[in-house]
Amino acid sequence: MQISTDALMEHAAACAALDGVDPAALTGDEAARWVSALARVKTSSEAVMAVLGRRLEELSSLDAGRDRYARAKGFSGAPTLLAQTGQMSTGEANRLLSLGRAMADADAGLGDEVLLVGASVEAEVEEPRVLFEAITRGVAAGTLAPEKAAMIRQLLETLSAPTVELERSLVKLGMRLTVVELGRRCDRALEADHEALRDRDRLHKKRRYATFFREGDGMIGFRGRFDAVTGAPFVTAIEGEVRRQMTTERELPEGERRDEGQIRADVFGAIANHAMGCQDPASGTKTVMVVQVTKEALESGVGSATCNGLSSPISVEALRQLAVDLAVMPAVMGGGSLPLDLGRSTRCFTPAQRIAIALRDKGCALCGQRVSRCDVHHIKFWSLEGLSNIDNGLLLCVGCHHRLHDYKWGVEIEGDEVWFIPPASTDPRRERIPSCATRLKLASPATASV
Q1: Quick one: which of 393, 365, 366, 390 has its CA closest to 378?
Q2: pLDDT by residue (tens digit) across 8-39?
Q3: In angstroms, rounded to a whole number, what is the distance separating the alpha carbons of residues 435 and 432?
Q4: List of E strands, 141-253
Q5: What is the pLDDT of residues 180-194, one digit of tens each?
Q6: What does the DSSP 8-state code read for residue 287?
Q7: 140 FRET partner, CA 20 to 30 A, in 237, 250, 295, 367?
Q8: Distance CA 100, CA 30 (A)
Q9: In angstroms, what is the C-alpha Rg of the chain?
Q10: Distance (Å, whole) CA 73 – CA 65
């Protein structure tokens, strides 16, 4: 593996014209273009940092014996050393080190050839031939953000039989999709690999942990990670209560309102107080969760399921563990048992309607925020004779809800596709913009191999 600074210098040179510019004189489009140009500088520099971080990791490993570099410099390991010298968090350092290991694997897979990290964007490069080569080239060229690269790498390492073709298609998608949308595409690939999904669930269960610690000022801190079976009811119950309490907070005077983090902390306390006073906490159903799973997968035990509160699919095996202690609500998109269209009979959308709208929008239709943090919004206002029907409902987070109200965005629904029409102040031509779920759906035909 060799380092090239061609891409880094090329991107940096493109930003030279920014010198001396008055930011107050820039239009929104101009400022956005400069941010995009600077992001390419950042991404290509992180590719080189990942290679150097990998070298620091090698020099600090157990194989280095008593001369481990990080220990000699007073650090516990390569992650803390890279975080300190690179002025970043330990999490960011670990992400770069993981990327560096992927680059090293790609270099090793090329045999006698050498992987040139950081080559110019205009350089003639053959199609990727080994795993992680496409990721490496995308990051080094400044066109694939390291966060997206880490997401693709993690998927490839999880799958039973990852392919170069799958990696290449995901890298191309990653250049135009958001992190949330790319994550959903990766989830689709994982859903098709039952063995990998089951193995990942088992690994996550082994890695679960939670810890409390006392901070210097006397406050109590909390840190933890949960597998799907442990975390799904936790997220569903907590975020559902937070969303309900946020609604009432808006009616309070500004000085008395709690923010989202404070409400979440209070919900933790309320749950603990309830558990301490509950005579039989193990009896009865503890929480309700909406789960999407096919009948065939549930009966055969082979397949995947998705549920609100989780950002990625789980195996049917994990779903069965959840069902032992939870009320699992099937996703019903109609039928006589659930009235999905109530017209003008009630102002509020029913739980069944909310489920149906969430299945269509997958989260906030505008920004992709997860379902548990969203409310159903009337597209045609109730005060203007709007109906409480699914075709007049839209899942939006609080911020996007205000955005549509305040700036007069339009909304169109065509079948299961949602489109936004920006105001003239945002786009004089008012060209339609697909929702997050619609954009992901439209990207699918070009990536049938995923």
Answers
A1: 393
A2: 999 999 999 999 999 999 999 999 999 999 99
A3: 10
A4: 209-214, 220-225
A5: 899 999 999 998 899
A6: -
A7: 367
A8: 33
A9: 25
A10: 15
Structure tokens given for 276: 């301490």
The pLDDT assigned to 215 comes to 85
CA-CA distance, 49 to 85, in Å (whole number)?
Answer: 11
- As separate numbers, helices (DSSP H) first and strands (DSSP E) second, the chain gives 17, 13
d(CA 445, CA 140): 28
Hunting for tokens 């968090």 — which residue is that? Answer: 89
Give the three-state DSSP class for 1. coil
Query: What is the amino acid identity at position 239?
Result: E
Q: What does the DSSP assignment read for 414-444? A: ETTEEEEE--TTT-TT---EE-HHHHHHHHS
pLDDT of residue 336: 43
Q: Which of 167, 107, 117 is nearest to 139 (CA)?
A: 117
Handedness of CA 69, 72, 77, 78 (dihedral sign): negative
pLDDT tens per residue across span 325-357:
455 554 433 444 344 444 444 557 888 888 889
The C-alpha torsion from 397 through 401 and 407 to 411, rounded to 10°, is: 100
Fill in the DSSP letter of residue 337. T
Which amino acid makes up residue 44?
Answer: S
